[in-house]
Specification:
By secondary structure, the chain is of the alpha+beta class. The chain has one domain. Helix 1 packs antiparallel against helix 4. It has four helices and four strands.
Length: 143
């Protein structure tokens, strides 16, 4: 492999890694803003060429931890899911800005039985495909 080709591969890898770090930082900021505290650990991954998944650990607030201890997991999951989908624009906008790609679909979940481990997944249109942003598809129950 030529030195120039190897350098180009490293640069592409560095750009993809930088993108993941920026997505992680954006999710930390959103959690801090909306919940008053950020996760204790965050890591984003490319899930193939057209998706990014961000895993956030220990995302529950003290009040939410109390609900979990009381066994109100379904209520807590419902509240978290409702919040995340009520904030579709706030989750998708930074990811679109950072990646330069259009979010086709957004998925959010929190497992309340393991200290609020949350997953935010953003699916993009494949190369050569276009369509509306998930932001533009938000309904009246989503902002």
């Amino acid at each position: 492999m030529a030195a120039e080709e190897q350098e180009q591969q490293q640069t592409a890898h560095e750009a993809r890694t930088s993108t993941l770090m920026e997505v992680s930082k954006a999710m930390i900021g959103l959690y801090k803003h909306h919940f008053g505290r950020g996760p204790t650990k965050t890591r984003s991954y490319w899930a193939g060429p057209d998706a990014i998944t961000c895993v956030l650990e220990d995302t529950l607030t003290p009040a939410e931890r109390n609900l979990a201890r009381m066994g109100a997991h379904e209520r807590l999951r419902d509240a978290r899911t409702y919040f995340q989908y009520a904030s579709v624009r706030e989750f998708c906008e930074p990811v679109e800005r950072i990646t330069g790609r259009t979010v086709r679909s957004f998925h959010s979940s929190t497992d309340t039985k393991v200290d609020g481990l949350s997953v935010e997944t953003f699916i993009f249109y494949a190369d050569g495909q276009t369509g509306p942003s998930r932001i533009d598809l938000a309904g009246p129950d989503e902002v």
